[in-house]
From TrEMBL:
The keyword Transmembrane helix applies. The lineage of its organism: Bacteria, Bacillati, Actinomycetota, Actinomycetes, Micrococcales. One of its GO terms (cellular component) is plasma membrane. This is MFS transporter. Residues 17-393 form the Major facilitator superfamily (MFS) profile domain. GO terms for molecular function: transmembrane transporter activity. Its main location: membrane.
Amino acid sequence: MSHGNTSGASLLKQPKAVWAVAFACVVAFMGIGLVDPILPAIAAELKASPTETEFLFTSYLVITGLAMFFTSWVSSRIGAKKTLLIGLAVIVVFAAAAGLSGDVGTIIGFRAGWGLGNALFISTALATIVGAASGGTSSAIILYEAALGLGLAIGPLAGGLLGSVSWRGPFFGTAVLMAIGFVAIVTLLKTSPDDEKPARTPLSAPFRALARPALAILAATAVFYNFGFFVLLAYTPFALVPLGISSAISLGLVFFGWGVAVAVSSVWLAPLLTARMRRTRVIWTILPILAVDMVVIALLIHSAVGIIIGVVVGGLLLGIMNTVLTESVMEATDLPRSVASSAYSGVRFLGGAVAPPVASLLAANIAEPAPFIAGAIAFVVAVVIVVLGQRKLGAIDVEEAPVAQAQAIGLGDAA
């Protein structure tokens, strides 16, 4: 991705509204990895099995995915600011409720509500930043990527620090931070009447979009890609516990490393690769390397150091794939970008929702390395889908405009 010649000085000279939304973005993306370090603690304290605990991811991702199909319809009727605020308010309520819960089933339910708020917020935030940022679209893109990367990296670390006090800590921490974000957006984000009367998107638009061959191929690829992604993110804490890495803070540090790797590669490595290779070739190259990484983790299942290195290397590769896949979705069709993003993101999150409990069941019923082998197979299936469908994907190798990149990252990269 080309970010133009935006200087650091102009990047930092933004209206307060942009900083308010960017702050809330960081917290929203923290929510993805926040529960990772406390999964073993929740399982132990609430007498829950690993599979039951993994549904903390599944309920969140299922509802986020389903809601994504409808967010463009909602925001095109009530406006971006109201959509952002409703999303934040829903997260505050359900994150706090999860922290007050006494059993894992209740937390799973409240995480689902959290997913609804997250879908409303993240699907609207990028468009808001692009509209309000000074210094052009390239400044907005860099800011949003920075917020996304920061959230993915800080989420597990915050989860580890707060979780070392109590497993309830990360839930209450999120509620407080999102409440601050809510107040910031209410007071700092001013909207004009035109902003609040956008063109209305039909309810059926994201579903019709999936009938387009190019988008259907990329969505199918994303289902299997995201399965592998969430095997790595959601199951690995349970693989590390028998090896002596079980405290919330130590798991938080492992996944802080993973998040930093995702952030660095999505912001810097992906653009370097796409400047030199066609996007389809980047996908064909990175997915098989991801599969190899998962096989290596499976082979080193009894080595804490081996697993941790595999996780961080996986983060570097996943960051590249996140950016390249979502850019590809934006270029694959002539559909409005918000519609293409809604359709793709909905399917993608649903693919990720399946992985955590399936991984846990494979480990319990077959062997400890089985989840990582399944993740490797999923990455191979994803690359096969892209190779077989390459004739329909010619448009994704055409150079794109910066605004397309911004919107691509806005919805697709949030998984």
